[in-house]
Amino acid sequence: MKIDIIYLDKVDSTNTYAKKLLNELKAGEGTVVWAREQYAGCGLGENTWHSRAGMNLTFSLILEPLFIQPDNLFCLNKAVALAVFNTIRTELSGDIQASIKWPNDIYAGDRKIAGILIEHTILGTSIKHSVIGVGINLNQVDFPADLPNPASLKQITGLNHDSEKFLENVCRSIDKEYSRLNRGEFKSINDDYNSSLFGCGCDLEFIAGSCSFTGRIKGVDDLGRLLVMTQDEKIGIFNHGEIILK
Hints:
Elements: E1 4-11, H1 14-23, E2 31-38, E3 41-42, E4 48-49, E5 57-63, H2 74-89, E6 98-101, E7 105-108, E8 111-123, E9 126-136, H3 153-157, H4 163-182, H5 186-195, E10 204-208, E11 211-220, E12 226-230, E13 235-238, E14 244-245
Parallel strand pairs: 1-2
Antiparallel strand pairs: 2-5, 3-4, 5-9, 6-7, 7-8, 8-9, 10-11, 10-14, 11-12, 12-13
């Protein structure tokens, strides 16, 4: 995939800008919208993405995954999450480990270091476009007090990270995982994703509705639902918003 980078000094949201380019037929697969400052970054649902200007990496990548059926959309989420996870993992050392926290975050230890938002345009039985929004905390060392558990690579490693080089590395990793999808390697991507999940194989405390219980994450199914085995060895299936980790 050939990457074409559009650099912006300031924008409301790179995803919004990328979708505007698509609507105006000014962009195609491989277009990357990279912003030094994003003042209305989007997260999952109504969440926003906080990033201090020039300190982190915020970008959106346009893909045209016509080979993916709409009922298998989450396989693209898995591939992108693996790509961002693998890029971040290579920068960490010591006791801090990277993981994928379902459904759309990357963690370093028990702190959030990156977020992913994917928005699709579906035409009939095909995915016409996907806009992959990625935010990675690189060099910011102070965050608003109301953010629960943010972290940056600089906080963890003590090093400054070059955003342009990091962007190149992430895009290269996304291209690698995207090519695996195109070759039909869905099972291996699924296995890699599930084995990289935050807390996988550990006893964790969950809240679902008015109930709290101890369970173990067993993976994520093709529809993007979290599979949790309870202590009586039953498997619960949860959509986003139906379960939270204590």
